[in-house]
Amino acid sequence: MTVPAAGTGPAGTTAASRVDTGPRRGRSALVLAAAVLILMAALLVGVLVGPAGLTARSVLLDLLDAIPGVHVDSGLTPQQHAILWQIRLPRVVLGALVGATLAIAGAAYQGVFRNPLADPYLLGVSSGASLGATVAIVAGGAGVAYGVPVAAFVGGVLAVAATYLLGRGIGGVRSEVVIILAGVAVAAFANAVQTFLMQRYDETLRQVYSWLLGRLSTDGWTDIRVVLPYVVVAAAVILLHRRTLDVMAVGDVEAASLGVNPARVRLVLVGAATLGTAAVVSVSGLIGFVGIVVPHAIRLVVGPGHRLLLPLSLLLGAAFLVFADVVARWALAPAELPIGVVTAAIGAPFFLLVLRRSRGVA
User: Which Pfam family, any one, appears in the UniProt record (predicted)?
Assistant: First the structure.
């Protein structure tokens, strides 16, 4: 498979591509606009759902009142206003950031390793983050609320760094298979250490499992301010490489012949995806299947091209997790389901469907 440069090739081919460009761009714009509307609907539903008894009219008026130059009376009491702006909105925004990051990181991993079943936790970031969080919880202390996110972030980044070092020591970083196998080894080691700590300090099991099952509870806007820079950097780097990922889909040898350095691109994209994933996991715990379900579902609809796949993963991943959080809050109200249980209930059947479809194609 070859990718001709713009302006080259037979005249008929160039003319046809010019004719197709307009309609294709128009369809892409419509698809992206629809994804934006879905995300806005998810954010609105996420803000409206809750046990505090806030009416949709009051919430919408209070949101409008926050727009500069607009002054309306929402009728909310000071307590209700605080619930909206310090509890509901931060939770919805955090859910959107976590979902967007996991989905676009999953799409990047799938493109880099040319495997539709790859996810953001592939290289051991989840196991490393879990070990870091477990160590912080076992250590306890007054600063445990801040220590868990920091330890989870450091653990996730160190696990992926160890994966790359191990992969390079075994056979270099040219082969994605070697890197994946190294990630399996690092994850197994981290899981073994975590299991030992959980058995040795069984009084912390409840806290550890609460973190492992995922949660979006926030203390105001602090968590969002912490993770937002990492999310922005990770998403920007991945989106800037969307055309490069299409080139790498033909294989390392062919990509190198087209001027792409596969090893360097793989390192940059895995680093960016890992940075974003470790940041959001550090505040949300482990939320599985988002990085598999969302990109693969989008790929089934719009095709494998990363020019559209990556921005759609960003938008619809955010919407997916916000809707999942609504289900988690509503299903057992006033109690809550761990959001990881909701995403697993959706993702596990989808994962099996993907496996069956892949088997049928093979």
Answer: FecCD
Q: What does DSSP assign to residue 4?
A: P
Reading the block at residue 52, the tokens are 């505090």
- Please name which of 93, 114, 119 lies closest in space to residue 104, comparing C-alpha atoms: 119
pLDDT tens-place values along the chain, 362 residues long: 444 444 444 434 333 444 445 677 788 899 999 999 999 999 999 998 887 778 888 888 888 888 888 888 888 888 888 889 999 999 999 999 999 999 999 999 999 988 877 888 888 999 999 999 999 988 874 445 568 889 999 999 999 999 988 887 775 545 677 888 888 999 999 999 999 999 998 888 888 888 888 888 777 898 899 999 999 999 999 999 999 999 988 887 888 888 888 889 988 999 999 999 999 999 999 998 999 889 988 988 898 899 999 999 999 999 999 999 999 988 877 788 889 999 999 888 887 876 776 655 44
- Cβ neighbours of residue 344 closer than 8 Å, sequence gap 6 or more: 288, 289
CA-based end-to-end distance of the chain: 20
Domain locations in the chain as residue ranges: 93-355
Q: Which residues neighbour 83 within 8 Å (Cβ) at sequence distance 6 or greater?
A: 50, 52, 54
**CA dist., res. 175 & res. 3, Å (int):** 23
Sign of the torsion formed by the C-alpha atoms of 227, 228, 233 and 239: positive
> Is the separation of the CB atoms in 84 and 53 below 8 Å?
no
Class of domain 93-355: mainly alpha
Helix segments in the chain, DSSP class H = 11-48, 56-65, 78-83, 89-113, 125-139, 144-171, 176-200, 205-212, 222-240, 242-248, 252-257, 262-284, 290-302, 306-331, 339-361
Q: In whole angstroms, what is the distance from residue 146 CA to residue 153 CA?
A: 11
Q: What pTM was estimated for this model as a whole? A: 0.87
Residues contacting residue 192 through CB under 8 Å, at least 6 positions apart: none
Q: Could you give the 3-state DSSP secondary structure of residue 203?
A: helix
Long-range contacts of 299-305 (CB under 8 A, 24+ apart): 299/116, 302/31, 304/249, 305/246
